[in-house]
């Protein structure tokens, strides 16, 4: 189990995340919803070890990861797909993917994991020798997710996976993430696309000004009048 306990992040005097606590289990999808600036990305960065905690802790399988460098967090089985993808355009699909297989836990089964990535994203197999900068935004997002999978994570953190993608591509991406879940990987997703993220998640949390202001199952949140008004324009 991945546990966030009283997670608090400050940037100077700015309090970005204020005492956030929740957990994610393997094979589960949990989504954090909120507007721009709510602190969603800071939660993922804190879990991944790329920003320091001001207070609280990140616990994985009973072991505290707080203060561990980001590359060692990956060694423990947590992988981050950052907003903006972070792929290397002048490298091929396969070269980008293999960059993800740096943890010791991933090296022995690198080719098998690559085959699994290609099964989930067959388009990447077709274009394994293509330079990433020539690909569409949706295809680059596939590369980013595939690269994270190459580290053989137990938990995958996804920062706005739908950002900048056409609606049909967003649907395909979340269907692929459902297949990732089926392999036993836990998903922690931060999103502004409330409708599709709740459709593919088990549970969700609402974040405002760094604080959790609501939570529930996906069905409960989809049927919540306040959530519909704030995020879905009042749609039922």
From TrEMBL:
Signal peptide: none annotated. SMART domains: AAA. InterPro entries: AAA+_ATPase (IPR003593), ABC_transporter-like_ATP-bd (IPR003439), ABC_transporter-like_CS (IPR017871), BCAA_Transport_ATP-bd_LivF (IPR052156), P-loop_NTPase (IPR027417). CDD domains: ABC_TM1139_LivF_branched. Residues 2-234 form the ABC transporter domain. SUPFAM superfamilies: P-loop containing nucleoside triphosphate hydrolases. GO terms for biological process: L-amino acid transport. The keyword ATP-binding applies. The keyword Nucleotide-binding applies. Keywords: Amino-acid transport, ATP-binding, Nucleotide-binding, Transport. Belongs to the ABC transporter superfamily. This is High-affinity branched-chain amino acid transport ATP-binding protein LivF. It comes from Flavimaricola marinus.
